[in-house]
Amino acid sequence: MAVxxxxxxxxxxxxxxxxxxxxxxxxxxxxxSAFRRDADRIIHSSAFRRLAYxxxxxxxxxxxxxxTRLTHTLEVVQVAxxxxxxxxxxxxxxxxxxxxxDLGHPPFAHAGERVLDACMRAYxxxxxxxxxxxxxxRLENRYPDFDGLNLSWEVHEGIVKHNGPxxxxxxxxxxxxxxxxxxxxxxxxSAEAQVAAIxxxxxxxxxxxxxxxxxxxxxxxxxKDLPLVGAIIAGIEERWPGLDRSRFIxxxxxxxxTALIADVVGEAHRRISAAGxxxxxxxxxxxRPMVGFSAGTAEAERAIKSFLFPxxxxxxxxxxxxxxxxxxxxxxxxxxxxxTDALPPEWRASVEGRTEAARARRIxxxxxxxxxxxxxxxxxxxxDRAAELR
Length: 390
Description:
It is built from 17 helices and no strands. It has helices spanning about 35-45, 45-50, 70-85, 90-100, 110-120, 130-140, 155-160, 170-180, 190-215, 230-240, 245-275, 280-285, 295-315, 315-340, 345-350, 355-370, 370-380. Helix 1 runs parallel beside helix 4, helix 3 runs antiparallel to helix 4 (about 90-100) and helix 3 (about 70-85) packs across helix 11. The longest helix is centred in the middle third of the chain and has 31 residues, at about 245-275. The termini are far apart.
């Protein structure tokens, strides 16, 4: 049977027919490749749908046009597929990894993760990348024959090695999963996984600048001294003098994405040509990433992050909201730990008879799966005062 989807061209690309398989063997049921089925399963998961109401930077009450975890994820998918196509890689595998990369993120962005990690410090901590693995291997309960989504080995590998090889001490979820499946934690992941990781950087750099400008946290003039960004701004001003602000911001983001993708593709070709891999496993064994920014663009990208940190992520307006949101996560965790009767019935049943550490992990699962608005509704249900994220 013919398999739908673009055939990877590069000899170092992953190939679905050569996949190391799934934890629970399944027959090939239709014309989709294994990696296409993985991407489709993630799209249809409950965890993926909940990303629509999870914060990226701005909480949902601040407006309908700022990014959420879901819109961020879709932008990562678009960038990842573009890079994978240009490099002759398996687009479906890069898409699946882009779709999955934030499934484990708790509500209220990195503030929620920091607080949940602090709450879980005595029980193994909390890491959203590791939680994404837990979501797709244990927490999604859709199929009669197994827990999780039963994704391909290559997707599990890419989720775990989001930032490269893993070394002890491992995050709790990865340590537990390593007893069931050898994901070559010592190696770099596939080229497709490296593409999904760099696509995440490109997407949030560009859309955070876009959201920050639209929220008036900073102005275009403040960006003119940034490498890469300043040159793009100058090009827009020369081509369209007096362009209205909304179109200007959109054009800036569009040109940045184009430039960053072109740089990654060119740099990946240079690295791969120098290294000479001939298979997907060669990519894993090289000991360094093959997909990344050139030295000059990496420096420019660091400058963008350095600009955004004080002006956006630590802006008083954002900090004030996220501190209040962190209090919501902390108070919910403490209440659930002290009084499991406060949990919904199905979650209450899942913690009965467990050790304190196991109970804490299940409560972390419950909290990490909550959307912003569900967490606020739970807080209003359990406490006399309503949380104000303003």
